[in-house]
Amino acid sequence: MTVPLLQVEHVMVQIGGLVAVSDLSFMVNEGEVVSLIGPNGAGKTTAFNAITGYMRPRRGAVRFAGRDIIGLSPERIAALGLVRSFQRTSIFGACTVFDNALTALHLRGRSGLLGAFLALPGTRREEALLRGEAMAMLDFVGLAARAGLRADSLAYGEQRRLGIALAAAATPRLLLLDEPAAGLNPSETAECMALIRQLRDRGTTVLLVEHDMAMVMRISDRVVVLNQGRIIADGPPETIRQDPEVIRAYLGGAPLGGHHAAA
Amino acid sequence: MSAVLAPLLGWSFAAAMASVPFLFPDPYLLAVLTSAGIFIIGAISLNLLLGYTGQLSLGHAAFFGLGAYASALATLGFDIAIGFGLRLRLDPQPVWVGFLSAVVVAGLFGWLLGRLAFRVRGAYFVIITICFAQVLRMVSLNWVELTQGPMALTGIPPFALWLPGQGVVELTSKPQTYWLVLGVAVLAFLIVRQIVRSRIGRALVALRENETLARSVGIRVTHYLVIATVVSAGIAGAAGSLFAHYVRIIDPDVFLFIYTVTMVIMVVTGGKGTLWGPVVGGLIFGLLPDMLRGAARPEAQWIAYGLAMILLVMFLPRGIVPAFTGLLAGRRARVVLPAAAAREAAE
User: Fold this and answer.
1) What DSSP element (H or E) covers A226?
2) How confident is the model at residue A33 (pLDDT cuts 50, 70, 90)?
C-alpha cells in the first residue's frame, strides 16, 4: 500500500492551559475529498493550525507525503505543497483581484533581486507566464471579470471564492479549506461545491472543515468526526450518517443531513 | 495613469529637473534643491520599508548617518587602536570607494537590524530602530579616536567623477553636485520601482496586507523583510554619502531623530506605498523651509508645519499622490460606469 498523503498521529495541541485537541489521528489519501466535522469548539480549526505550522502540537506526529512536517514554518509547509485557506475571509484587501492571484502564485516563481533590478529576460518570461496563470486561475473561479477591482470591494461570496482561489493557485497537492461555505447562500454554496469538485478533478486532494452537513455529505469521499478534541468516527458519509455516537454528539438525535434534505 | 503615460511623465519630470541649472542658474536655489534631493533619496529608501512592507523604522537616520560616516572615514583614512595592541589603519581612498563603502556598511547594518528586529514586529520594531539610531549617535559622540566626536569630521573631499575626456574631475560647482544628486535620486527611484513591480515587491505588499495569508501561500516573511531592509538601508547610506561629500563636514547630529522624522513626514504626506509619494512630499518639505525663510520666523514655520501635517492627515490620510490619482481614477470610473452596468445587465 502506498503512503497516505497526510498522516496525523496522536496529535495533542494545548492553547494556554486548555487542551484544544487531545488525541487526533486520521489520514488523507491522495485524490480524496475528506471532511473534518464536529460541533463548535471541537478543535477543527486548531487541527488545521497544527497541520499547517501555525501552531506547534504538544505531542504527536504530522506527516505529509511521508515526511515529518512538525516544527516547519507555514511557508515551508506551503512550499512542500500543503496550502490552506482561512475561516475568516482572507485576501489582500488593498490589492486588485488580479494582483491577489499573482501574489498567490509566489511559489511558482523563482526570480530574485538581481532579476528584478535588471529586468532579465528570464524574469520577464516568468512574469508573463505567471500573469497568464493568474488570469487562468481567476477564470477558473469565475472572477476574471473582476480582475481589475480592489479585492475588498468584492461581494462577500466573491471574496470567499477568491480566498479559495488564492489557496489553490499554486496547485498544491493537498488543499485545506476552513469552512469554505461559511455565510454563503444556497446557490453560492452549490457553486463552492462545484469548485471543490473541479479542484479534485485537477488532481488536488482536499481536506475541509465544514458546518453545512448537506454539502459535507454530498461532496466527501470520507468524513472524520471530531468531538471534544478527539476523533469519534471516520468513514464514508453513509456510515457516518447512521453512526449512533455521531448522531448523539453532533445533533442530539436527528439523523445527519436529514434536516437539509430539502436544500 | 496608463502604462505608457506614467513613465513618459516620469522621464519628462526628471528632464525638467535636470534642466533647472540652465533655466535658473541661481546658486541658492540649486543648493536648496540639492539638499532636498539628498533627503528625497532618504525618503525613497524609507518608503520601501514604511510604504511597501508597512514597517515603521524610526531610526532611518541611522543608515543615513552610517553612510555619511563610512564615506567620510574611507576618504579621510583612519588609524585606530582596536585592542590587544593591534591597530587598524586605512589610507585615504578615492571618493567612489567611499560611496560604495557607505552603501555596503549601511546595507550590512540593515541586514543585522532586519535579522534582529523582524523577530519582533510592530511597536517593538519601532522601539528597536529608535534605539539603534541613538546607540550609533552615542558611539559617534564618544569614539573620538575614530569619529572626532563632537569636534566633527572635517575636510571631507568633494565628490569626484571620472568623465570621458577629462579624467577624474572634482565636482565642486553647484550644478555638478546637483546633477550628481539628481542622478542618484533617479537611480534610487528606479531600483525601488523595479523591486516593487517584481515578485519580491508583491511579496512585500502581501506581508503588509495580510501576513498570515502571505505565509500560507509560501512567502518567507523574514527573507523578504530582510531584503527590503538591506536595500532600504543601502540607499539611505548612499544618501548619507552624498550628504557627507556635499556638506564636507559630518558630526554626530546626522543621527538625530529629527532627520528620521523629516523623512517620515515626506513619505507620509506624499503618500506611502506609492512610487512618487516620497518625491512629491520631499519636494514640498525640502523646499518649503527655505522658501518661507524670508516670510516667517523659524518658530512660526514649525507651528505651520505642524498644522499642515494635521490637516493633511485629516483630509488626505493616504497622502497627496494617492488622493490625486484617486481623483483621476474616480473620474474615469464614472465615465466607464454606464457601459459596465449595461454589460452586467445583459449577462
Assistant:
1) strand A222-227
2) very high
Task: List CB contacts of B110: < 8 A, sequence separation 6 or more.
Answer: B63, B229, B230, B231, B232, B233, B234
Per DSSP, B48 falls in state: I
Residues of B in contact with A111 (CB under 8 A): 198-199
pLDDT 10s digits, B86-141: 777 777 878 888 899 999 999 999 998 888 766 777 788 888 888 889 899 888 88
For residue B149, the distance in angstroms to the closest alpha carbon of chain A comes to 37
Three-state SS at B274: coil
* Closest among B232, B254, B257 to B243, alpha carbons compared: B254
What's the Rg (C-alpha) of chain A? 19
In angstroms, the Cα distances linking B41 to B129, B157, B192, B255, B344 are: 19, 21, 11, 16, 46
Residues of chain B contacting residue A72, judged by C-beta atoms under 8 Å apart: none
- Between CA B50 and CA B259 the distance in angstroms is 15
Q: Can you list the domains of chain A with their CATH numbers?
A: 1-81+172-183+204-263 (3.40.50.300), 82-171 (3.40.50.300)
String of DSSP letters for B103-120: HHHHHHHHHHHHHHHTTS
Residue with cell 543585522: B112
Buried/exposed A201-238: b ≥16 CB within 10 Å, e otherwise: eeebbbbbbbebbbbbbebbbbbbbbbebbbbbbeebe
Backbone angles phi, psi at B288, to 5 degrees: -55, -50
Contact B205 A103 (CB under 8 A): yes
What ipTM describes this predicted complex?
A: 0.85
Measure the CA–CA gap between A36 and A224, rounded to whole angstroms. Answer: 5
> Residue B79 pairs with which residues in a beta bridge?
B89
Residue owning grid cell 430539502: A262
Element (H, E) at A224: strand A222-227
Closest Cα in chain B, distance from residue A104 (Å): 6
Within its chain, how far is the Cα of A163 from the centroid? 10
Contact A103 B201 (CB under 8 A): no
CA dist B227 and B230 (Å) reads 5
The pLDDT tens digits for B8-61 are 888 888 888 888 888 888 888 888 899 999 999 999 999 999 999 888 888 899
Report the Cα B325 to chain-centroid distance in Å.
Answer: 22
DSSP states of B118-152 as a string? TTS-THHHHHHHHHHHHHHHHHHHH-HHHH-GGG-
Residue whose C-alpha is closest to residue B320's, from B255, B254, B268, B275? B268
Q: Which residue of A94, A111, A123 is in closest CB contact with B209? A: A94
Nearest to A106 among B197, B199, B210 (CB): B199
Please indicate whether, in this complex, the C-beta atoms of B216 and A83 are within 8 angstroms of each other: yes
* Cα dist from B306 to A190, A211, B124, B277, whole Å: 56, 53, 26, 19
* B170, containing H or E segment: strand B167-170
Handedness of CA B38, B39, B42, B43 (dihedral sign): negative
